[in-house]
């Protein structure tokens, strides 16, 4: 189907992409972001590993993607967590060993949530933004109450 907007982009590999309304883009692969956050009970390898595993399990089960389609994953940790890199935990997951991973320290804002691990996944997906599920677990559920039930469009499913 040709987009009513009439904008067709012929790439070098002859792939045709249409740009238009949200309906037009369903089924066309794009890079989307998946957010998540959680808290670790302690600054220990075990507690951080448990929190990261639980968070990535939730994100993977809610979004059903192939790790092969991940562009990159960035974790942030608050300054009170330094026992292990979240990326070191993530890398042990099935098919995650080739995913580009990065850890950075979260900026320190007075009064913000302690022992918090955040994640931002960039993913190639045919799903529209409204079908991307974000996961805010444990004490991090208060950070984005609209997303703590994990649906981007804030509907409960
Ligand atoms: O989404 C989160 O993890 C938040 O804490 C919320 C929020 C925001 O205000 O949007 C704040 C700080 C983070 O760096 C990212 C986003």
TrEMBL record:
**Keyword terms of this UniProt record:** Amino-acid biosynthesis, Aromatic amino acid biosynthesis, Isomerase
- What does the record give as the reaction this protein catalyses? chorismate = prephenate
Biological process according to GO? amino acid biosynthetic process; aromatic amino acid family biosynthetic process; chorismate metabolic process
Task: Write out the transmembrane intervals.
Answer: none
- What Gene Ontology terms describe what this protein does at the molecular function level? chorismate mutase activity
- EC number(s) in its UniProt entry? 5.4.99.5
Matching CDD domains, A to Z?
Answer: AroH
One Pfam family linked to the record: CM_1
The record's section on SUPFAM superfamilies has: YjgF-like (SSF55298)
What protein am I looking at? chorismate mutase
User: Which source organism?
Assistant: Aphanothece sacrum FPU1
């Amino acid at each position: 189907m040709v987009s009513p907007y009439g904008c067709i982009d012929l790439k070098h590999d002859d792939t045709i992409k249409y740009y238009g309304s949200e309906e037009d883009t369903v089924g066309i692969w794009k890079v989307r972001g998946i957010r998540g956050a959680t808290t670790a009970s302690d600054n220990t390898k075990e507690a951080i590993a448990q929190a990261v595993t639980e968070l990535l399990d939730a994100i993977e089960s809610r979004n059903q993607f192939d790790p092969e389609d991940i562009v990159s994953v960035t974790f942030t940790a608050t300054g009170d967590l330094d026992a292990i890199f979240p990326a070191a935990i993530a890398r042990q997951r099935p098919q995650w060993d080739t995913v580009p991973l990065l850890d950075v320290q979260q900026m320190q804002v007075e009064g913000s949530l302690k022992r918090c691990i955040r994640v931002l996944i960039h993913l190639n997906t045919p799903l529209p933004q409204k079908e991307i599920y974000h996961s805010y677990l444990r004490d991090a559920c208060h950070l984005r109450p609209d997303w703590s039930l994990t649906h981007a469009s804030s509907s409960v499913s």
